Amino acid sequence: MLIFWRQGYNATSLSQLLETMAISRSSFYAAFTDKRTLYVEALTLFSQRTNAVLLSVADDHNPSQAIKNFFEYTLFSVPARRMRRGCMMVNSVLELADVDEGLSVLASQKLGEIEQAFEVCFERAIQSGAFSSQQTAKELAQFVMTVNQGLRVASRQKMSKKELHNILNTTVTLLGLAA
Q1: What percent of the chain is modeled with pLDDT above 70?
Q2: Of 89, 85, 77, which is closest to residue 161 (Cα–Cα)?
Q3: Residue 10 in contact with residue 59, Cβ under 8 Å?
Q4: pLDDT tens string 98-113
Q5: What are phi and psi of 87, to 5 degrees?
Q6: According to the 3-state scheme, what is the secondary structure of the chain?
Q7: From the centroid of its chain, how far is CA 159?
Q8: How far, rounded to the nearest angstrom, does the alpha carbon of residue 124 sit from its chain's CA centroid?
Q9: Are the C-beta atoms of 51 and 114 separated by less than 8 Å?
Q10: In this predicted model, which residue has the larger pLDDT, 30 or 52?
Q11: Which residue in 38, 151, 153, 156 has a CA-CA distance of 20 to 30 Å to 79?
Q12: Which domains does the chain have, with CATH numbers?
């Protein structure tokens, strides 16, 4: 997962995968069939880890805190080298959109799962009366996901954590979630 995340699908060779995994070519083919199958597994693992973070912070009825916690755990509290990698799912959509539609669609679906979790968080907050908005929970979740994708690209452009924090704080304020 790490080598794909760092280099992307196309730039990662089979020999690099074999060396990183410390396995033989025959073991690789017996376990994964091909590079694409391994990439699907790596992307799925990355998605599961990201979803676990979001689900752990989205349980309460406070979308502001859930959003802040999600970005804190996935972007701001990680080592700089990891932050600079961006998001494997966003990277996959960008890299593979015109190269491998199936992998790009898979990455988009995985991002959609995160968006759905944000939607649930907004829906709970709206239903409980803890938050009200002119926008639907779905529209709010779409907006947060667009910001998420932009932050991930900005992190790959080596934008500072302070600048990324400022964008997140502006987002929370624009959503009417600022305390």
Answers
A1: 97
A2: 77
A3: no
A4: 999 999 999 999 999 9
A5: -115, 130
A6: CHHHHHHCCCCCCHHHHHHHHCCCHHHHHHHHCCHHHHHHHHHHHHHHHHHHHHHHHCCCCCHHHHHHHHHHHHHHCCCHHHHCCCCHHHHHHHHHCCCCHHHHHHHHHHHHHHHHHHHHHHHHHHHHCCCCCCCCHHHHHHHHHHHHHHHHHHHHCCCCHHHHHHHHHHHHHHCCCCC
A7: 17
A8: 22
A9: yes
A10: 30
A11: 38
A12: 2-174 (1.10.357.10)
> What does the block give as tokens for 125?
């907050």
- Tokens representing 85 are 């990698």
Q: How many CA atoms lie within 13 A of 152 on its CB side?
A: 20
Q: 47 with 127: CB under 8 angstroms?
A: no
How far are the Cα atoms of 64, 81, 85, 88, 159 from residue 109, in angstroms, in the given order? 24, 26, 20, 13, 27
Cβ atoms of 57 and 142 within 8 Å: the answer is no
> Residue 111 corresponds to which tokens in the numbers above?
């991002």
Tell me how far apart the alpha carbons of residues 163 and 150 are, in angstroms, rounded to a whole number: 12
For the entire predicted model, the pTM comes to: 0.86
What tens digit of pLDDT does each residue of 128-178 get? Answer: 887 888 889 999 999 999 999 999 999 999 999 999 999 998 988 888 876
